[in-house]
Structure formats: C-alpha cells, structure tokens
Predict the 3D structure of the following.
Amino acid sequence: MTESSHESHENVPSRQRRRFPGISSRAYEHPADRSALVALRKLTGFDTVFKALSGLLPERSLRLLFLSDSVRVSDAQFTHLNSMLRDACYILDLEKVPPMYVNQDPQPNAMCIGLDEPIIVVTTGLVELLDEEEMRAVVGHEVGHALSGHAVYRTILLFLTNLALKVAWIPLGNVAIMAIVTALREWFRKSELSADRAGLLVGQDLRASMRGLMKIAGGNHLHEMNVDAFLAQADEYEKGGDLRDSVLKILNVLPRSHPFTTVRAAELKKWSETRDYQRIMDGHYPRRDEDKDTSVTDAFKESASHYADSVRGSKDPLMKLVGDIAGGAGDLGGKLRDKFTGQGGGGGGKGGATDGSQESTSPEDPEQGPQEPGSAGS
C-alpha cells in the first residue's frame, strides 16, 4: 500500500483492531465458495452469457442511478458509515475505497455490485436496524465481497433475475438461462459464507456478528432473543426430520440468493473456533502477491476434502445417507425406498439370503456411527 493510500484511511477506529496487510481473499474464502465458482464457470453457456452481458449491462447507468437517487456516504453524509468503510478497507488492505450509497428501502439489505469497479449499497432498513459494531461487520462483509472479486458475478445475477425477459433473446433459451441463474444463486449463497468471515475479520467481534444475523432474522428485538438458542435452531434445522425434510430444505433454498441466517451464524461460529481463523489473527495468512503461484489442483483438493468432511460430519438425514452409501453401507435405491416409505426395519425381507445377511444389523446402525465431531456446525 502506498503512503497516500495510508493517508486515505485517516479515520481512527473506535477501538484497536488487528489489520492484515496484503491479505489474499484465499485466507477467508469458504471452500464451497471456490468450488461453486469453478462449477459455475464450467456450466455450458455461461461464457456466452458472461461475455454478452459484460457488454450489455448499463453499468454507467447503474452508477448514475445510485448517484441521483441515493445518498453517497462521505465525510459530509453518513459520516459514521464512511469511517467504518475506510476502517474496513484499511484492515483488509483494500487500496481503493469503493463508493458506498445508502438507498431508501425498509428491507434490511446490502450488496456489492459493479463490473469495472465495485460499489457498495446499503438500505436504510439495515442502517436503522443495526448498532455500530453490527454494522461494522456488515461493511466488512461487503468489502470482503469487493476484495474477492464477487461484484462482477453478483451484478450479472442481479440483472439476469430482474431483467430475465429482456435478455431472453440470448441464443440459449429460457431454460438454459434459468440453469445459469440457479448456478449463480448456488455460488452466491456460498460466497456469503466467505463474506461473513471477512466481516468477522474486520469487526473482530463474534458476538456483534451473531447479533447482526439474529436481527436480520428476527428484527430489532434483542431483548427477546438469545444467541445460544438461535444457534440451536441451526442445529435442529440440520439434523431434524427425515429424507423428505432434506428434499424440502433443498427446494426452499433454491430460489434464495442468501443462505438461511441460522446456517450462516452456525458456519461463522464454527470457523471462528478453528485453527485457520486463529492463524489469520496471529498474522499467518496467504498474501495477494502469492496468488499467482497458487495451484488450482490444490484448490480442488481442498474443496473436495471440505465436502467429504461435510458429508461425514453432517447431521442432515440425506447427507448421512450419502455418507453411508459412500462408505459401502448399502445400495442407494433400496435405502432411499426404505427411508421414504418408512420400511427398513423388519426381519426377513424379500431380498434373499444376501440381503438378509446385510440387514442382520439394525438399519439404524449407520446413523449411530461415531462420525459426528463434537462441535459440528452447519
């Protein structure tokens, strides 16, 4: 960072926070974020849509819209947000402070968009809902999006979902476009987990991050809410029900751009307790000047390892079944049939001696295996 860049971050934070010079977004990116983005880029037709929209999207018009119909954060307007923004950029060592706008909207929301350069937009509903430390985590969240380069894909998702009819002329057909929208949403949900981590690195106050997520879920009624009970909801959500509930969870999340707030809270708390987080706080983290030397193969392996660990440690009935089958616990068709019909227990069966020998142990045994780690999150 240049000396002039340091001078641009002249606002002193309200309390001393550790900063991370030269930090790479790889330090906080969730493995599922990276692997979902790789999968998105490999989706048939994505390159065509990406190139078409990169030239089509009226980014200049978008910037003029916010400039003309929102309030730009500065030393003269929303000065407390301006201080948080500069502080967040200083902590994550983002050299160019992105413009931030406050938009009149009662719905609590924030986003980082833009193709050439990112801009951050927060709604009045969010500003009015959160206290200073909670808002600091949100600003850090959006700066994390900017550092990770998420703004480009978020902008394409925004335009594809809001202007789907106007881009229907692209020679891929509506079904293909919806496939790309679905893949973009899947990636963006994972990218939110990465940005939540960036918000924690900026705010360095886990309780504030938890409070902010609770308020987004339940409004400004902290006296009626409890962090431990909120996290218990995430645990109940994950492990509760049967395979039918697992399918409903998938269907419920598909149209959403963000993960469920209880899941985000549990994921963030789990990460805050890892050695990876502590190493970053101790100053040991990947740096941007090393990004060019990183191995794509290693990234794939890390993502694959993460998913394998997630399946093994998951309490979700479907994920546990996948883990059982991957471990040779039985055939997929038979187990799915038994789980959905509630049969699976009884003696004898109609499958002959081979099936009978496989069912000699209780069909519930695989679910009682000792795979669950002690502090499993989402």
